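Before going further, learn to read the protein records used in this course. The integers have meaning only within a learned vocabulary of local backbone shapes. The record below shows the convention in full.
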Amino acid sequence: MKKKMIIIGGGISGIYLSILLKKYLDMDVVVLEANDKPLKKLLATGNGRCNLSNKDLDKAHYDGDIKPWVNDIIHDFDIVEALKDIGLYTKYMGNLLYPYSESAKAVQTLFLNRAEEFGVKIICDEEVLSIKKSKHGYFIHAVHQDYQADYVTI
């Protein structure tokens, strides 16, 4: 039986993670989004041109206990290649990374299409009220329904 992951939040991180989990681990994935549609904030990034990242990634920009391992993540992850792997071609304009289309709407469409192609279930207007861990995984209590999963990511 497939493991089930519930991702709380249908922003770019949640949707991207859902695609990766389906593509590489073939998990059952459900994204719970409190807004009426996923990737809503993405449309405003870069004045609608969709600023995806910044070349100036350095562990100095991070606070707290994560600094020791942030450097490994930053240097081992090639965002340009990772995005290309799901069909999003990008370009740097100065220090900022944009899609070739320079269109946040096009990026939103691509990510939602990929999620659909891989069988990610996205449920909107579903605010999570509580999460409880049990010996059988996680119990997620939301406004309209309760969910059970082996894993939860926020």
About this structure: The longest strand covers residues 128-134. The CA atoms of residues 113 and 122 lie 12 Å apart.
